[in-house]
């Protein structure tokens, strides 16, 4: 029996947020049934070493639509591709168009809340669409033309990696935010709450830093005497995050816009309480209303932080257990991979 050849496309393994999902699929998909490859646009040297060189493809879009479609179509046919599974966060409708001309099924996973005429065209040209936030069905795919080509597949975390570890006690109440230090992640909103919180509440920021935005944060920190209460750690590897969570009492994400925020699922899986902005993404699907705050006014976030700060241990333990339960019931890597394998079989 011939295996179904899948090409996973992703912009790169340097900045693209879906890299860990792509790697999980590549590493765990049933090799008896499927034959996976990975295709990137840039930084092929960043692809992890356990992906052999003969499994790596590179295709950089040149800007000439006609030539790009022909070249990508040729790449797919020359590699005898059956399915393209795209994890591109951009509205690149040339990928599904080239796949159509190559006679290849095209699946993309919708992860963010961007929408435009280009997104509509990309969706129309696709063979199938997976989405990881249930609100997307009514928001983007309510048109009848999408009715038979959409599947809700919840995003996941690797619970072999992200799991509760024994906590390391601290005299401080430690808040963490993990994600690119940039305007959309909105770390300044969290920093502003520190002025109204007890002195032993400390914020720890992890992520690649946009220097102009970090400078804005530093100026606010120094002008409000918050030195020592905000720590920057830069980029952190996924494998190191559970160790960080041993020292963390609360995870806060204040993004302006999100799709399905993986970071909050990782925190929940590691037994850390979570607060998240109502950023138009999947927070309402993952969290109760008590754990979601508006960005219109910092006071609700201040109140919610203080609530957890003063919470009795038994109540906090119940909050943690509920978060872990949600992850184990719905958001494990095994469940996500099984769902995609079922979808791949249908597509061919």
Compact description:
With 348 residues, the chain is α/β, with parallel strands linked by helices. It has helices spanning 19-28, 65-78, 94-102, 117-125, 135-140, 187-193, 211-223, 241-245, 262-269, 283-286, 299-309, 313-330, 333-347, and strands spanning 4-10, 34-40, 56-58, 83-86, 105-110, 128-131, 150-152, 173-178, 201-206, 230-232, 250-253, 274-277, 292-293.
Tell me the layout of helices and strands.
Blueprint: E1 4-10, H1 19-28, E2 34-40, E3 56-58, H2 65-78, E4 83-86, H3 94-102, E5 105-110, H4 117-125, E6 128-131, H5 135-140, E7 150-152, E8 173-178, H6 187-193, E9 201-206, H7 211-223, E10 230-232, H8 241-245, E11 250-253, H9 262-269, E12 274-277, H10 283-286, E13 292-293, H11 299-309, H12 313-330, H13 333-347
Parallel strand pairs: 1-2, 1-4, 2-3, 4-5, 5-6, 6-7, 8-9, 8-11, 9-10, 11-12, 12-13
Overview of the structural elements:
The protein has 348 residues and is an alpha/beta fold. The protein has two domains: 4-156 and 332-347, Rossmann fold (3-Layer(aba) Sandwich), CATH 3.40.50.2000; 173-330, 3-Layer(aba) Sandwich (Rossmann fold). It contains 13 helices and 13 strands. The chain has helices at residues 19-28, 65-78, 94-102, 117-125, 135-140, 187-193, 211-223, 241-245, 262-269, 283-286, 299-309, 313-330, 333-347; strands spanning 4-10, 34-40, 56-58, 83-86, 105-110, 128-131, 150-152, 173-178, 201-206, 230-232, 250-253, 274-277, 292-293. The strands form two sheets. Strands 3-2-1-4-5-6-7 form a seven-stranded parallel sheet, sandwiched between helices. Strands 10-9-8-11-12-13 form a six-stranded parallel sheet, with helices on both faces. Strand 4, helix 3 (94-102) and strand 5 form a beta-alpha-beta unit. Helix 2 packs across helix 3 and helix 6 runs parallel beside helix 7. The relative contact order is 0.12. The mean pLDDT is 94.
């Amino acid at each position: 029996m011939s295996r179904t050849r899948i090409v996973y496309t992703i912009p790169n393994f340097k900045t693209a947020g879906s890299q860990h999902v792509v790697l999980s699929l590549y590493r765990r998909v049933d090799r008896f049934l499927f034959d996976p490859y990975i295709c990137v646009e840039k930084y092929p040297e960043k692809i992890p070493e356990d992906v052999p060189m003969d499994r790596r493809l590179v295709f950089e879009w040149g800007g000439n639509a006609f030539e790009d479609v022909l070249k990508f179509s040729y790449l797919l046919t020359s590699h005898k591709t059956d399915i393209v599974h795209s994890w591109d966060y951009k509205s690149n409708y040339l990928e599904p168009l080239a796949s159509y001309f190559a006679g290849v099924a095209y699946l993309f996973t919708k992860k963010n809340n961007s929408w435009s005429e280009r997104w509509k065209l990309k969706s129309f040209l696709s063979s199938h669409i997976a989405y990881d936030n249930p609100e997307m069905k009514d928001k983007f795919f309510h048109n009848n033309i999408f009715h038979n080509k959409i599947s809700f597949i919840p995003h996941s975390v690797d619970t072999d990696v992200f799991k509760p570890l024994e906590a390391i006690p601290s005299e401080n109440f430690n808040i963490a935010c993990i994600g690119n230090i940039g305007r959309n992640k909105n770390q300044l909103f969290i920093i502003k709450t520190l002025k109204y919180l007890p002195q032993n509440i400390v914020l720890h920021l992890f992520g690649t830093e946009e220097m102009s935005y970090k400078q804005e944060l530093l100026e606010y920190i120094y002008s409000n005497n918050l030195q020592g209460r905000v720590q920057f750690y830069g980029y952190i590897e996924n494998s190191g995050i559970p160790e960080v969570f041993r020292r963390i009492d609360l995870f806060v994400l204040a993004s302006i816009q999100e799709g399905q925020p993986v970071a909050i699922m990782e925190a929940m899986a590691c037994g850390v309480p979570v607060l998240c902005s109502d950023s138009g993404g999947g927070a309402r699907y993952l969290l109760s209303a008590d754990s979601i705050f508006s960005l219109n006014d910092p006071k609700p976030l201040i109140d919610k932080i203080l609530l957890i700060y003063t919470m009795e241990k038994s109540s906090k333990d119940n909050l943690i257990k509920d978060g872990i339960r949600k992850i184990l019931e719905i958001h494990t890597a095994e469940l996500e991979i099984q769902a995609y394998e079922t979808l791949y079989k249908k597509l061919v």
